[in-house]
Structures are given as structure tokens and as C-alpha cells.
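sorry for the late reply, my laptop died twice this morning and i had to redo everyting from scratch. anyway the thing you sent over, i finally got around to it. pasting the sequence first so we're on the same page, its 152 residues, then the predicted structure underneath. double check i copied it right bc i was rushing
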Amino acid sequence: MFNIALYQPEIPQNAGNIARTCAATGARLHLIRPLGFQWHSPKLKRAGLDYWSSLDYVLHDSWQAFVNHLPPHSRVWAFSSKVPRPYTEVQYQPGDYLLFGPESRGLPPEVLGCFPGVTIPMPGKGGRSLNLAVAVGVGLYEALRQAGFGSG
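ok and here's the structure:
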């Protein structure tokens, strides 16, 4: 199982779509407060459709609470448009954490500096970043592909 960690997500629809992706793939979702929306937001629930009952998730009250929750020797990959290493150069392992920042600003330097950073290349012109839900899907499916989609 892989872990998706959202550091201070801001848009409930993105978080709901990511929750749906996590439920469909068996990934655990970690939401790190403060959230930019109410936990009981109708937009959050609607975007997650009927997947909420099968979602494995953890709400962390703060960044420090999340860090304290990490098992010893955890591997955390910080996704950011501000680092050069492509996400495809990582050998993902079940149990890894894929960490993503808030939509408007990404991971702050003090968080990004805690773990190895990876980026999703954007060869087009004019794009600052991908939508958060899309970026999570890209990263998670690469990790799942490498792990054989749970077949072995």
C-alpha cells in the first residue's frame, strides 16, 4: 500500500477527487491541517462520490503531528515543481509516502527540505504546475506500476 499525503490542501474538490483515487487504488490518504475547507464540506464529499466508506484516511492536526506519525525509516517523496529530479527516477516501494503541497503555493522550503524532492516534468510552454489531483494520480500510478499493481 502507498500513502498519499496532502500538506494543507486548499480546494475541497481536489481533495475529494484524490480521496476517490486513493480508495480505488488502496492507497492511504493523509490530510495535514490546516485544511483550506471544512472537513464536512459538501464539495469535498460530492467529489469523493460514494468512495468515502472504503477510504483509508488519517487527519493530522499539524505538520509535526504528521512527521511524528511516520514509522521509523519511512520513505517520503516530496513532489514539487521547484526541484530537478524527475519522479520516474525513483524506485518506489510499497509503504512509501508521496507528499504534495497546497494548490496555490506548493510545499514550503522548510517542508520540501525534509525529504527527497521529485518533479513531474511539464514539457509544454507556460504551465507552472499540474492540478493537484492530476499530479497525485500521475505519481501514484507510477508507484503502482513499479509495484506491479499489487500483483506480486
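Strands lie at 3-7, 28-32, 56-60, 76-79, 97-100, 117-118.
thats about all i looked at so far, will dig more tmrw
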